[in-house]
Amino acid sequence: MSSPKYERVLIKVSGEMLGGEAGGGVDLAMLAAFAEEIHKVSELGVETAVIIGGGNIFRGLAGAAEGMERASADYMGMLATVINALALQDAMERRGCHTRVMSAIRMHQVSEPYIRRRATRHMEKGRVVIFAAGTGNPYFSTDTAAALRAAEIGADVILKATKVDGVYDKDPAVHDDAKRFSTLTHLDVLQRGLKVMDSTAISLCMDNDLPIIVFKMEPGSVVRVVNGEAIGTAVG
Predict the structure, then answer these.
(1) Orientation angle between helical segments 199-207 and 142-153, nearest 10 degrees
(2) 94 — phi, psi (to 5°)?
(3) pTM above 0.90, yes or no
(4) Torsion of CA 133, 147, 226, 166, to 10 degrees
């Protein structure tokens, strides 16, 4: 087996991915599949961190759109990510993978507080670190949290697992002539308004020379990306 291309990665997955076909709640089969993928990456000796959205449970922007006060709605979304993080931790530890959940909102009974040096030490010891509660601040998405945490821990790359096989110039589910990009620059994403991550996250990645790989989550795909196989869309 080829040696991994990356030494330290941050994997970003949306809450909707964990919701499975229903799109809400936690689909246990999808959770198990995702846990297995991360476990395989960790077994390669790659230092691994994960950050999950909370859209399968509650989306702050959706709540704000319905008239909720934005900060309150965003805090509810952050709490949803903690539920997903604990679910993933359970699924991974049942596979023998050592993990730590680190929350930006302090919840001592269920997680450790996020401390950068402690997070990197966990990873050096072979533990998978699951970041929860976003940045701990309203008005910032889990995309931005992923970019921030990846920069803080010195990740080599952000791996964004999605339901589609890369970044397209338009929605491939609607347009048959949609074109998939194999590579893009951060500036391309911003100028074209492509839906890779929100503009704050992309700008943070650009400022810190942090590449992003967007790919379809399916059996073996994360290991393939970590080993350097050119799948999906590389942004950098």
Answers:
(1) 10
(2) -70, -15
(3) yes
(4) 100
- DSSP letters of 38-81? HHHHHHTT-EEEEEE--TTT--HHHHHHTT--HHHHHHHHHHHH
Give the three-state DSSP class for 198.
coil
User: Mean pLDDT in each 10-residue stretch from start to end of the chain (236 residues)?
Assistant: 86 88 83 93 95 85 78 92 95 95 96 96 97 95 95 97 88 85 94 90 96 93 92 91
Cα 19 from Cα 99, distance rounded (Å): 22
Handedness of CA 23, 24, 30, 31 (dihedral sign): positive
User: Which 8-state DSSP code applies to residue 16?
Assistant: H
Contacts by residues 93-98 (CB-CB < 8 Å, ≥ 24 positions apart): 94/35, 95/35, 95/36, 95/39, 96/39, 97/35, 97/38, 97/39, 97/42, 97/128, 98/125, 98/126, 98/127, 98/128
Q: Which of 214, 174, 176 is nearest to 194 (CA)?
A: 214
User: What pLDDT sits at residue 2?
Assistant: 64
What is the 8-class DSSP label of residue 19?
A: T
Q: Are 198 and 144 in contact (CB under 8 A)?
A: yes
**For the chain, how far is it from start to end, CA to CA, in angstroms?**
27
Measured in degrees and rounded to the nearest 5, phi and psi for residue 213 equal -120, 125
Q: What is the DSSP string of 155-192?
A: -SEEEEEESSSSEESS-TTT-TT--EESEE-HHHHHHH
Tally of CA atoms within 13 A in the half-sphere of 178 that contains its CB: 15
Question: Which structural domains are found in the chain, ordered by start?
Answer: 8-235 (3.40.1160.10)
Kindly state the tokens that stand for 146. 């992923």
